[in-house]
Amino acid sequence: MTLRIGRIDYLNIWHVFHLLEGVCPEGPEFGYVPGHPSRLNAALASGDLDISPSSSFEYLLHAEKYELLPGASICAHAEVQSVLFLSPAPLAELPAWLERNPGPVCLTGASATSAALLKVLWSQKWGLPAPRWQEVEPGAGLATGRPFLEIGNIALRHFVHPPQGWHIVDLATEWAAWTGLPFVFAVWIVRRGLSGTAREQLGRLQAHIAAITADLEGHFEALSRLPDLPDWLTSPALLRYWRAMNYDLGPREQAGLALFGECCTRQGLLPGMPGLRWFS
Questions:
Q1: SS3 of residue 30 by DSSP
Q2: What percent of the chain has pLDDT over 70?
Q3: Three-point CA angle 54, 59, 60, nearest 5°
Q4: pLDDT tens digits for 88-124?
């Protein structure tokens, strides 16, 4: 059988999949399904994927359906560069700007985790009045002229080449300054109820993921010069981005994930913080 693996279409994990496909190539045993986090969330929930790095919020919301791959995540201990809130006014002046310019605050539809994080920071850290939230297509935020959340490669491009007149807030930096903990944007989610054959294949995949993420630094220079990377991103900028990311799910990352779950519960986004169930 073919183990169906979700593949996030973002540079924050492109290099991991590039190396992973070298040892677990597309074929009878392993199949890769690309998509942004929200699309992969839906595919996991419908049973169309067996495992995927996907939104941590998806796990927290539907933990009864899933297991977590131990030790694996996509997280940031300080800046993340690719989960950004862009505002036409500084945060301190944003309530007045919204009063003068009535309308929504826009959320990309690509990530449930990042949308929940913005809502938590908005209320619990920044103490801003509740806005009207509106979901927009990924990449559409800038054209609205409204404050907006963007993620992924589009957000990274805004970070590297800031649009004139916009104030950029890195949400991972805000979380770390507020809590002192890493923020876990994605976890490797395993669909429960896999067959024995699929679980054996997944065990081998897990070992390769662990080996690759433990030795990423040794591959950075060569990977950053590959021709299929975007032309708007220099090699030094890409290396800075990759070095901002972390792929562990150890005690500090688990503490950050648990705190996020508690904050989402206070915000009314979750019914409660679930336990963490591990694939073994």
A1: strand
A2: 100
A3: 135
A4: 999 999 999 999 999 999 999 888 999 999 999 999 9
Instruction: Confirm whether 126 is domain-assigned.
Output: yes
Of 114, 149, 179, the last residue of a domain is 179
User: Which amino acid belongs to residue 77?
Assistant: H
Mean pLDDT of 66-80: 97
Give yes or no: residues 98 and 135 share one domain. yes
Q: Please choose, from the candidates 35, 138, 123, the residue with its C-alpha nearest in 3D space to the C-alpha of residue 83.
A: 138
Judgement on whether residues 174 and 235 belong to the same structural domain of the protein: no
Show contacts of 202-206: CB within 8 Å, 24+ apart. 202/3, 202/50, 202/51, 202/69, 202/279, 204/24, 205/3, 205/5, 205/20, 205/24, 205/30, 205/51, 206/69, 206/70, 206/72, 206/279
Identify whether 278 is part of a domain. no
Comparing CA positions, the residue from 56, 10, 12 lying closest to residue 34 is 10
Domain membership of residue 120 as a residue range: 83-179
Could you give the CA distance from residue 190 to residue 2 in angstroms, rounded to a whole number?
Answer: 15
The token pair at 223 is 């990977």
Q: Are 216 and 224 in contact (CB under 8 A)?
A: no
Mean pLDDT of 115-137: 97
Residue 99 falls within a domain, yes or no?
yes
* Final residue in a domain of this structure, among 162, 179, 196: 179
